């Protein structure tokens, strides 16, 4: 065989080898890209039987987390983003513990989706920084130093503790407990009991039909369209309780309180300092029992002020036909009823 023919055969074999190598590399890169794409889209996923797990504990430095009601009986965890393989899971008895990375993460680095079935007894979530959504889940407790928390259509026993940030709640049917040291709270269309403790910041509650229990220190608050009981332990700041139908009771240390009442509403309040203003509906026949040691009292012209011991007093019944009751006891606070 001639040398030229040998070289030609060797060249053809070499070309075949190159083509085969290119094909193998292409397949490898395609497979790797497909796996990477799946990881980016689907993340890392785990699931456990709701019959085995009765309590979930999850903690991490930071995350964007979605806590939602599971359609089935499985507890599901999906992690997308940075360090998704560094989340550890452990089951002891019926308690599932999930621990994320302790450093190097922000709320924009990782998204965690947890699906909680109805049968789970309690779920606890703890973060330093968080952007959280609680969607339809029940018996959830979330605590964080900073961030935003939005709860919508939650069931019973939802508890949110936030040092600084924003909290919103909407369309909740079970009890909702919120504690915010410094921040903004927005509540809309609650159908059950709400307990709010806030040291500073502001809140806005609209169209709640359950009971409200307030503990506030230096807060600007507004409650619009409330139906039911409002119980308060108020410090400083202002509170507007407008278009109110129900019973308002409690204490105020040095607040500026404004009440706009519907017929048959009741107020029973003790105020040390500050101002209390009550606006009654037209044709109100509410009974008034207002007294103060040194604060200014202003009432309807039909009821003359009197003196009883050390108290100035306005006591009597207004002329209209609509029922109601206003009882205010004051040390230095001024009280106005109109």
Please tag this protein with its features.
21 strands, 338 residues, mainly beta
Question: Can you describe this structure?
Answer:
This protein is mainly beta and 338 residues long. It has a domain at 44-210. Helix content is 12%, strand content 59%. The protein has 1 helix and 21 strands. It has one helix spanning 3-42, and strands spanning 44-49, 55-59, 62-69, 74-81, 88-92, 95-99, 110-116, 122-135, 140-152, 158-170, 176-188, 194-206, 212-224, 227-261, 266-279, 287-292, 297-298, 306-308, 311-317, 325-330, 334-337. It has a 21-stranded mixed β-sheet that branches. Residues 27-42 have low confidence and may be disordered.
Write the layout of secondary structure elements.
Layout: H1 3-42, E1 44-49, E2 55-59, E3 62-69, E4 74-81, E5 88-92, E6 95-99, E7 110-116, E8 122-135, E9 140-152, E10 158-170, E11 176-188, E12 194-206, E13 212-224, E14 227-261, E15 266-279, E16 287-292, E17 297-298, E18 306-308, E19 311-317, E20 325-330, E21 334-337
């Amino acid at each position: 065989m001639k040398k030229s023919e040998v070289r030609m055969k060797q060249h053809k074999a070499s070309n075949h080898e190159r083509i085969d190598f290119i094909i193998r590399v292409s397949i490898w890169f395609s497979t790797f890209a497909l796996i990477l794409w799946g990881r980016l889209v689907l993340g890392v996923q785990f699931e456990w039987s709701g019959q085995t797990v009765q309590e979930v504990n999850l903690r991490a430095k930071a995350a964007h987390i979605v806590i939602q009601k599971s359609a089935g009986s499985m507890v599901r965890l999906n992690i997308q983003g940075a360090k998704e393989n560094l989340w550890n899971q452990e089951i002891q008895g019926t308690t599932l513990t999930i621990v994320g990375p302790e450093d190097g993460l922000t709320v924009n680095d990782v998204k965690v989706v947890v699906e909680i079935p109805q049968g789970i007894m309690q779920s606890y979530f703890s973060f330093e920084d968080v952007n959280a959504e609680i969607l339809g889940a029940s018996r959830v407790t979330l605590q964080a130093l900073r961030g935003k928390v939005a709860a919508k259509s939650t069931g019973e026993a939802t508890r949110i503790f936030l040092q600084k940030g924003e909290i919103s709640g909407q369309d909740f049917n079970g009890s909702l407990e919120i504690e915010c040291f410094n921040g903004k709270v927005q509540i809309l269309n609650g159908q059950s009991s709400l307990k709010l403790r806030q040291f500073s910041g502001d809140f806005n509650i609209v169209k709640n039909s359950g009971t409200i229990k307030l503990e506030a220190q230096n807060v600007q608050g507004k409650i619009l369209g409330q139906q039911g009981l409002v119980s308060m332990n108020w410090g400083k700041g202002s509170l507007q309780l407008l278009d109110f139908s129900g019973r308002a009771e409690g204490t105020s240390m040095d607040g500026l309180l404004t009440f706009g009442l519907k017929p048959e509403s009741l107020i029973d309040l003790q105020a040390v300092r500050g101002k209390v203003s009550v606006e009654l509906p037209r044709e109100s026949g509410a009974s008034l029992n207002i007294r103060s040691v040194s604060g200014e009292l202003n009432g309807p012209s039909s009821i003359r002020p009197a003196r009883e011991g050390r108290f100035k007093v306005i006591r009597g019944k207004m002329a209209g036909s609509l029922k109601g009751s206003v009882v205010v006891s004051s040390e230095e606070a001024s009280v106005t009823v109109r």
